[in-house]
């Protein structure tokens, strides 16, 4: 499935209930985890201490911060869909979001998304995107929920 390209509210609305696509697999490296720890000041050992994690963690590895995994959503969303004719796009909210499974350092993740809802709010498109961030080789997703975006079409 290639990248979906939409140019208007009507084109996006026509996809209601459909799977919009899957992103490419993305490796969550220890370097990325360390950089996220530095940016957020969250240096808990389960994320950054590879030796201790190998010895003491039930995962036998460091794991990505849940919010790091979530923060990959915009990048992976951009691999699934290109929305043209926009003034801007704004993150509006998250609903029913659950962290289902930790992402071990070195694992690969991808986004699978479908259009769960769409509303026209006086010319502003409010789109609810049902998403799962999957971990390669795992049945249970790392994160799932509904991300709501506001699209301001020109």
Description:
InterPro entries: HotDog_dom_sf, MaoC-like_dom, NodN-like. It comes from Prevotella corporis. This is Putative enoyl-CoA hydratase 1. This protein is of the alpha+beta class and 154 residues long. It has one domain (4-153): Hotdog Thioesterase (Thiol Ester Dehydrase, Chain A, Roll), CATH 3.10.129. It is built from six helices and eight strands, in the order E-H-E-E-H-H-H-H-H-E-E-E-E-E. It has helices at 9-13, 30-40, 45-48, 50-56, 66-71, 73-80; strands at residues 4-6, 19-22, 26-27, 81-83, 86-99, 108-121, 124-135, 143-153. Strand 7 and strand 8 (143-153) form a beta hairpin. The chain is elongated. The mean pLDDT is 96.
Short key terms for the protein model shown above:
154 residues, Thiol Ester Dehydrase, Chain A, six-stranded antiparallel β-sheet, two-stranded parallel sheet, 6 helices, 8 strands, MaoC-like_dom, HotDog_dom_sf
Quick structural summary:
The chain has 154 residues and is α+β, with helices and mostly antiparallel strands.
Give the helix proportion (percent range).
25-40%
- Give the integer mean of the pLDDT values: 96
- Cα-atom Rg, whole angstroms? 17 Å
Uncertain stretches: none
**What oligomeric state do these chains adopt?**
single chain
Assign the CATH superfamily: Hotdog Thioesterase
Strand-residue fraction? 35-45%
What class do helices, strands and sheet pairing give? alpha+beta
Q: DSSP helix count?
A: 6
CATH architecture: Roll
Strand element count: 8
The domain tally reads 1
Distance between the termini: 27 Å
Q: Would you state the CATH class?
A: Alpha Beta
CATH topology: Thiol Ester Dehydrase, Chain A
């Amino acid at each position: 499935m290639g990248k979906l390209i939409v140019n208007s509210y009507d084109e996006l609305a026509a996809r209601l209930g459909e799977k919009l696509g899957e992103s490419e697999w993305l490796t969550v490296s220890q370097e990325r985890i360390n950089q996220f720890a530095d940016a957020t000041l969250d240096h808990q050992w389960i994320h950054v201490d590879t030796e201790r994690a190998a010895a003491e963690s039930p995962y036998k590895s460091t794991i990505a911060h849940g919010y790091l995994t979530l923060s990959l959503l915009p990048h992976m969303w951009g691999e699934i869909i290109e929305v043209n004719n926009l003034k801007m796009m704004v993150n509006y909210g998250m609903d029913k979001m659950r962290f289902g499974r930790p992402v071990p350092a070195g694992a690969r993740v991808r986004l699978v998304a479908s259009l769960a809802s769409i509303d026209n709010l006086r010319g502003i498109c409010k789109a609810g995107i049902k998403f799962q961030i999957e971990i390669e080789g795992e049945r249970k997703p790392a994160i799932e929920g509904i991300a709501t975006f506001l699209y301001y079409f020109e």
